[in-house]
Amino acid sequence: MKEPVRLALVRHGETVGSSSIRYHGITDVVLSSLGRAQAHEARTLLGKTEFDRVVASSLTRAWQTATVLAPEQPILLEEDLREVDFGNWEGLTREEIAARDPVLYAEWQRSLQAFNYPGGEARTDFRSRIEAALQRLLIMEASSLLLVAHKGVIRVLAQALLGRDLPPGQPELGGVLQLERVPGGPWREIAD
């Protein structure tokens, strides 16, 4: 089996319920009309690229986006590509979290990578889950792979593959990050 030489990472589009400002994590919400439009824009950005495999988080917002991006292809749903479980903070805005748990909020801002969400998932467990899923995906027989997931997931994947963090706020809703790897070489970001 060989690793894919091209990997497109796409963040799902906006969801219903003010999701662009709320931490939905593992809460299963559907795309809004704007989210569907963002998925169509992402499809345009991907151009005529054909993918050997299409993989999406098992959460509805991700697989709905994947069906817009690759309507004729089967989509493999990967449970381990779900967003982090924000626990007691699911569905809250940053401001609501700061007001409800000011001490924990301050700790979260200081130590994001080592933070344990109250009633939810530890960031270290989240990272391990995503990296394990990545290893399973990279052994698929595919020269091109489309992966549709969530902001936190894509940020972990980019860090693991590129060895650097994405800029704050990236990827945006419906955002596309395209990577390429020469067999045996490092992953690199490529222009749209």
Taken together, the total number of domains comes to: 1
CATH homology superfamily: Phosphoglycerate mutase-like
- Strand tally is 6
Task: Give me the strand/helix succession.
Answer: EHEHEHHHEHEE
Binned, the helix content reads 25-40%
- Helical/strand content category: alpha/beta
Spatial arrangement of strands, main beta sheet: 3-2-4-1-5-6
Would you kindly provide a written description of the structure presented here, covering whatever features stand out?
This protein has a single domain (6-20, 30-85, 122-190), classed as Phosphoglycerate mutase-like (Rossmann fold, 3-Layer(aba) Sandwich), CATH 3.40.50.1240. 35% of the residues lie in helices and 16% in strands. The chain has helices at residues 33-46, 60-69, 94-100, 102-110, 123-138, 151-162; strands spanning 6-11, 53-57, 75-78, 144-149, 176-181, 187-190. It has a six-stranded mixed sheet, with helices on both faces. Helix 1 (33-46) packs across helix 2 and helix 5 crosses helix 6 (151-162). The longest helix has 16 residues, at 123-138. The chain is globular, with a radius of gyration of 16 Å. It starts with 5 loop residues before the first strand and ends with a strand. The mean pLDDT is 93.
